[in-house]
Amino acid sequence: MALAGCSVLPGAGSEQAPSTAATETPTPAAAPVTAQEVASVLEDYVKRNNAANKAVSDKLLAGYEGGSSLAIDKAGYASLRKLGGRQAAYQPFGYTEPVHTVPVGPEGRWFLTTTHWKGKSETAKEPTYLLFTRDGESWKQVYAPDVFEGKAAELPEIVADASGTAEEVAHSDTAGLMMSPAAFAKSYAAHLVNKGTAASRTRFAADRLTTGAASNRVKMKEYAKVVESARPATAYPSYALRTADGGALAFTTLQRTIRYDVHQGPGRKYVFQKNNGFLRGKFYTYMKSTALIQVVAHIPPKTAEPAQVEVLGSYSGIISGSGR
Questions:
Q1: Is 34 within 8 Å of 100 (Cβ atoms)?
Q2: What span, in angstroms and rounded, lies between the C-alpha atoms of 35 and 54?
Q3: Largest CB tally within 10 Å, which of 19, 62, 84, 98?
Q4: How high does pLDDT run on average in the chain?
Q5: Under a CB-based contact definition with an 8 Å cutoff, are residues 127 and 99 in contact?
C-alpha cells in the first residue's frame, strides 16, 4: 500500500503530506532588528537556498538554516542522494509580498516573515511563514510552515506597531491564553497520534494533519498494524507572538514515529514509502519511520466562550527509516 511521501527540497512551495537546544539566554544589550536588516536577510536567504538546492549541498544548507528546518532539509538531501537524484533541471524560486514582524521579548533576536512562494510561472495562493533567528554573526531560517489550503483568509492578525514590532509570548506563558504554547505542543502531539483524551480532543479544530493521519490509519488497517507515537521535539526552540484577539500565533516542532507491522498470512501483503531514500523498496515484515513536523497554530485567548486551537500550517520530513 502506498504511503504519502513528505521529504522534498526546501522551497518547493507545497504543503507536506503527513509522513507516514534549549534557547540560549539572550544578550540584553543586543541592538534591535531593523526593517532594512530583515529585508536583506530574506534576499540573502533566497540566493543561498537556491544555490544549496541546485548543488544538493549540506554545507551550503547549513549556512542559512538551523533548528528543525536544517534537520528536515538535510534529511531531504540525503534521501535524494540515496535515490540517485540530482538537481540538473533545478528551477530557482523566490518570495513575493513579504511582511516582516519583529518581536520584543525574552527569547532574543528573531523575526517572522509572512510571504508567498513564487516560482517561474506560478505563485502560491497560501502564504508561508519564515522564522529567522540570530546565530552568531548570521541569520538562520528555523521554521518554514506552509499555510494549509483555504486557510489564508483565516490567519490571525499579529499585534504590531508601525515599525513591525510585536509582543513575544514565552513558551510557558498562560496569561490570557486558552493554553500555553508549551501545553499546546504536548497536547497536540498526543492528539496527532489519536492518544489524547476525549476532553482534550475537543480543544482542537479539525486540521489537515490530524485528518490525514486518521485517514492513513483507516487505509493501512487492512495491510498492517499501525503503532504511532509523538512528542514535542524539545531540542528545537518554539516561538510565539501575540495576536490581535489576545491569543498567540505559536510555532513548534513535533517528532512522530510510525511503525507498520505487516499482517502475515494468505495473500502476501507489503507496505512501502513513496519517493524516500531512507525507505526504498517493499517491506513484507515491518516498516518504521521518524519524522519532524513543524506546525504553526493559533491559540485563542481564554474567554468564557467555547474556543478551539487551530493548526494553520506545517512543514515536515522523514529523518530516518528502517524495515524488512
A1: no
A2: 29
A3: 19
A4: 87
A5: no
